[in-house]
């Protein structure tokens, strides 16, 4: 998350919220993405950190949570004045500002080449011979934030231009190959002169 600090401050300024306010939907989103509708108790889940914070630092201020609701960043399904994090839901407005989303995955899927030239065969090699939901799961596992997504897409476009995308999409995602492409982009600023 530290690598995303500049993006965090953009979100803080955009929504006019505090760091503490940012952390509540951030942690809730991680928990909801990872565990969805799993029943409680969830001691090792992200939502446990919200309870730990409330117990060891200070309770989440009700007015602060209400401000997040008023700004459309959280939905509050608590029936009374007591706020339980399990009854809060992160809205798309917050999620789309911070995290890589399914629409980002769709952009990646559309940009990824369908075929590549195989060095030992006449027919091109298929690169998207996988179920799209499986690729989406890998994307969600490895591409968490908007910054991750921007880096992935930049490396993908650079790799496509250099004919360096020669592996199936699921291997590209599971191996985080785009990080190697990103490093190559940074290490070889004049790579155009080399190719």
Task: Give the tags.
single chain, 195 residues, mainly alpha, 11 helices, disordered C terminus
How would the blueprint of this fold be written?
Elements: H1 5-15, H2 19-35, H3 47-56, H4 62-70, E1 74-76, E2 88-90, H5 92-98, H6 102-111, E3 115-116, E4 125-126, H7 132-142, H8 146-161, H9 169-174, H10 177-187, H11 191-194
Antiparallel strand pairs: 1-2, 3-4
Helix pairs in contact: 8-10
Q: Could you characterize what this model shows?
A:
The protein has 195 residues and is mainly alpha-helical. It folds into two domains: 96 residues, no CATH class; 90 residues, no CATH class. 57% of the residues lie in helices and 5% in strands. The chain contains eleven helices and four strands; from the N terminus they run ααααββααββααααα. The protein has a two-stranded antiparallel ribbon with strand order 1-2. Strands 3-4 form a two-stranded antiparallel sheet. β3 and β4 form a beta hairpin. α8 crosses α10. The protein is elongated and about 70 Å long.
In short:
It contains eleven helices and four strands, in the order ααααββααββααααα.
Largest sheet descriptor: 2 strands, antiparallel
| Neighbour order of strands in the largest sheet | 1-2
Structural class: mainly alpha
Helix content: 55-70%
Q: How much beta, percentage-wise?
A: 5-15%
Number of domains: 2
If helices are DSSP runs of H or I spanning 4 or more residues, what is the number of helices? 11
Note the gap between the termini: 35 Å
Shape: elongated
Number of strands: 4
- Low-confidence stretches at least 5 residues in length (pLDDT < 50)? 38-43, 191-195
Order of helices and strands: HHHHEEHHEEHHHHH
Mean pLDDT: 86
Alpha-carbon Rg, integer:
21 Å
